[in-house]
Structures are given as structure tokens and as C-alpha cells.
């Protein structure tokens, strides 16, 4: 029986995935979430094949397939609705073995937390200090009833873009930077069939993903200075995207103003030299916050979690070596995906010069769909560790 104890800092998708991966290997887990309620704030997700396989490894794939929406992406259009590139569903299944899965973030988050013991989940828990050496780790946090100290065999820093764990243990590392775009998101009721697709305009992108149960997730991203906000964010989205092709105007009309979220896009532009220090391992955005241009943020966090659980399957025995293995397996791949996502943004949403836009459109039309899919598949073609 494994009696090792892991403290997971952060109760988002990455943190809960890590807690579940360790729990499945009989670790005792404590999840510390600083928010008052353990829930996911957001709209929808498009989970690529790698993320779906990771969720299968966690035992959640069947439930999420039932509640989400599995459909191959329709492809890429221009703002007038002309298709620049199409993706064939059968070819996607042939290359990847599965299609993408659209799911509401709240659904994924609920499915993860319901798979964990309720006693392991702690809210209103503000982590103040983490200590680690090769033999032990300690987490000090403040809860509703005052300060607490936890001893742990392993600490998982899954506390997001502005990770306190990363800032404390890697104090000299540069903070995340603004990517140059702002993004609006919403999940709405929209029963009409809509293909999962993205549309590119000058310095702008609009995406739509069915997420099951008559719901659809849309997002709009735009080159903009940081820190912008509008009194009515839905009106701001309509100002930029309201005259784009159908069904975009209908989607925006069906969106209640109070469900629109807006966030500037930041990423960890300087890669970390390691995801591990002592008995602390970083995971998800804390380790490799990336731009959303490849749709791989959640997928890479899920991969991290599955690999961490696999290398730590023997509990605290040999943990330093296990964390070296985690870093060796996860850092090269996740940082490569992060770099590729930045490049994808430069040639996708961020591109704005008219000549460059015309050249891009011509190149996309001339590229066979199977070739474009193969380029995408190299980031989604990941399998969980065996055993």
C-alpha cells in the first residue's frame, strides 16, 4: 500500500488531473485551491487527440465523450466565409485514431473533481510558502481557520500563469509576457449544427466549437494593446466581428452580454531550465504557459499529469529519480509545443498585412488537406506511458 502524500497547489484542470493521476497510483493527495469555490472559470475547450488519450488514461474518457461533442474540425475560413482549408474527418481518425472533443470547461472540471475524494479538496487555501530539499517538502498555507503546515513527499505546483510556486522557487526567472492579443470567450445555447472551425481576418480570429448538450463555445481574438476593457464586452466583440460570415452574427446575437469573458493573452516566453526543484514539480501553465493558437494548453497540462502519475507509481520510493524522468519526458515536448504555438499565432491570428494575408490564403488553398492535417497531427499524436 502506497502511503506517500502529495500536495497539489492549484485546483484547476491541471491540478485536478495531477491529483487524480497520483490518486490512481494510491497516493494520498491534498489539493489546495485559493478560491472560495472549487470551480472552473471559463467557457469551452477543444481537446485534441493527445488530451483525449490522457483523459482515457485517467479513466474519464468515456464520461467526457458522452457529455462533450466529438467532431473533426471543419477547417479554416476567411472572414467572408470562403474555405481556405478543410479537414477530412475520416483522415483525422486514420492519422490520430480519434477526433477532437469539444467540452465545456466546467464539465471537465466537475468530472475531474468528482473522481477525487471530497476530503482531499480544500478551498480558501492560500499557499504562502513552499520548502523543498531532496528528502522532504513542506507547504505552509492560510485557510479560513488560520495557518496550516503540511509535510509532503511531493509538491505539485499547478497554480497557473502567475504561479506563486514558480516565483518562489525560480525567483530569477522572467515573468510571463503579453503576447499582443486580447480574447473574448463565451459558451452559449445554440442548437443549430455548426462545424468546429476557425476564421481568420486581418490581425483577428474567430473560432467556434460545439461542446455538447446543445451548447457551443466561441472565441474572438484581436491584436490590441494590453489592459483594454469595455463597458459592454459583447458589443465590443460585435464591433469587430459582427459583419463576418454566418453564423458569427447569429452566435453573437444569441450570447447574453453577462457571459462574455475577456482576457489578454500572456505566455511564458522564456522557457524554464527545469520543471523540478527538490521534491517540487511544476505542471501546466505554471511550467509552460503558452498561447492558445494550437489549442494545446489544457492538453499539455493533462499530459503532464498523466506522466507525473506514471513516473511516481512507486510512491515516495525513488522519487528524485522519478522527477528527473518527469522533467526529461515533459519539458522538451511541452516547450516545443509552446514555441510552435507562438509561430502558429504569427502566421495565423496575428498576421495583418494585406499582402501577407493574400499569400497565406493562396498557400492554404494549394496545400492538400491531408498535408495540413499531418502538420497539426504531430502535436496531437501523443500516447500515454504504458504500465
What does this structure look like?
It is a single chain. By secondary structure, the chain is α/β, with parallel strands linked by helices. The chain has a domain at 5-70 and 101-176 and 267-347: FAD/NAD(P)-binding domain (3-Layer(bba) Sandwich). The chain is 36% helix and 27% strand. The protein is built from 13 helices and 19 strands. It has helices spanning 13-24, 49-57, 61-67, 89-96, 105-114, 164-169, 233-241, 248-253, 285-288, 297-311, 319-347, 354-366, 369-380; strands at 5-9, 28-32, 44-47, 69-70, 75-78, 83-86, 101-104, 121-122, 126-132, 137-143, 146-152, 154-157, 177-189, 197-201, 204-212, 215-223, 261-267, 276-277, 280-282. Strands 6-5-14-15-16-13-17 form a 7-stranded mixed sheet, with helices on both faces. The protein has a 6-stranded mixed sheet with strand order 8-2-1-12-19-18. Strands 3-7-4 form a 3-stranded antiparallel sheet. α2 packs parallel to α10. The longest helix has 29 residues, at 319-347. It is globular. The protein starts with a strand and ends in a 7-residue tail after the last helix. 48% of the residues are buried.
Would you identify the regions where 5 or more consecutive residues have pLDDT less than 50?
Answer: none
Strand content: 25-35%
CATH architecture name of the domain at 5-70 and 101-176 and 267-347: 3-Layer(bba) Sandwich
Helix vs. strand class = alpha/beta
- Radius of gyration, in Å, reads 21 Å
CATH class of the domain at 5-70 and 101-176 and 267-347: Alpha Beta
Give helix % range: 25-40%
Order the strands across the largest sheet as they lie in space.
6-5-14-15-16-13-17
In whole angstroms, the N-to-C terminal distance is 18 Å
CATH topology of the domain at 5-70 and 101-176 and 267-347: the name is FAD/NAD(P)-binding domain
